[in-house]
Amino acid sequence: MQEAAFIKRNKPRWEEFEKLVKSNSTINPDRLAELFIQVTDDLAFAQTQYPNSRVTKYLNSLASSVHRAIYKNKKEERNRFFTFWKTEVPLAVWQSRKQLTYALIIFLIACAIGGISVLHDDTFARLVLSDQYVNMTLENIKAGNSTRIYSSASEMNMFLMITLNNITVSFKVFIFGVFASLGTGLQLFYNGLMVGTFVTFIYQHRQLAHAFPVIMLHGTIELSSIVIAAGAGFVMGNSLLFPGTYSRLASFKMGAKRGLKIVLGLVPFFVIAGFIESFITRYAFMHWSLKVLVIGLSALLILYYFVVYPYQLKKYGRI
């Protein structure tokens, strides 16, 4: 790479680093560590390609500044548990907004494919959902409650089982990102395919008005969290595919760390979704206003924490 192209490509990032280091405001230690890795990778590249260049001297000076800032702020904060969800997770979400958008698009496309396939092939639902699940749903429809499955076990047993399963699924979707994002993409696509298939299946049996709001009581948070976990998997996978000016190992470490923060940040949301599914969804015939309230509050929670709040932090310079 020509020196001019190298400078043009990375100059905005260096200026941001320099501004953060020189500012008097407190900088997140993890953010400083990330900056240090990026600057030292650029420095190593410059030392190899342009050993006597002014840009090499500049990066050496900048790396030293970041290094001093890290050790100046290396004392752990007492409220780290609180700041993890207050700052670190929103920062990771903001930095990963493109991958999260890709995950949402893939999920919606998969839902559409599942729905269209069911409309054109009556056997497709059995292929995706299994004969056992389809037969059980048909029996529930005949019994007058297509969502009776959500009241088939005790509240606490369901809560523990569902919450653990959802967390396991989210980590599985994330970890599969190590296979160059392909594994995460396939897992996400299959989940979207199942959702689209089931929704269209209940529509065909004239149960959509009843079943869909019931499912979305917990599904608003649960499905959103799975999409976000997939976005975290794409962050890790893309760090391997597109390391940029960093070594592939350094890029992977940064991507894996950022993605893992997002997935860990989802744990409380899966607990909330598990609670709703176990203790509230079973009341399928509650008044429609209560369903709207639960779904609306769930949607607002997801949108605020994963969209609005990271934007606000970035806009006002808090991250």
Features:
mainly alpha, 319 residues
Model description:
The protein has 319 residues and is an all-alpha fold. The protein folds into 2 domains: 3-75; 87-315, no CATH class. It contains 12 helices and no strands. Helix 4 (80-95) crosses helix 11 and helix 10 (208-241) packs parallel to helix 12. The longest helix has 34 residues, at 208-241. It is elongated and about 80 Å long. It starts with a helix and ends with a helix.
Task: Chart the SSEs and their pairings.
Layout: H1 3-22, H2 29-49, H3 54-72, H4 80-95, H5 97-120, H6 124-129, H7 131-142, H8 155-175, H9 182-204, H10 208-241, H11 248-279, H12 288-315
Which runs of at least 5 residues are low in confidence (pLDDT < 50)?
A: none
| Helix/sheet category | mainly alpha
Distance between the termini: 31 Å
| Proportion in β-strands | under 5%
Summarize the biggest pleated sheet: none
The helix content, as a percent range, equals over 70%
Overall residue-averaged pLDDT value:
87
Number of domains: 2
User: What would the principal axes of the Cα set say about the shape?
Assistant: elongated
SSE string: HHHHHHHHHHHH
Q: How many helical elements?
A: 12
> Gyration radius, to the nearest Å?
24 Å
Number of separate strands: 0
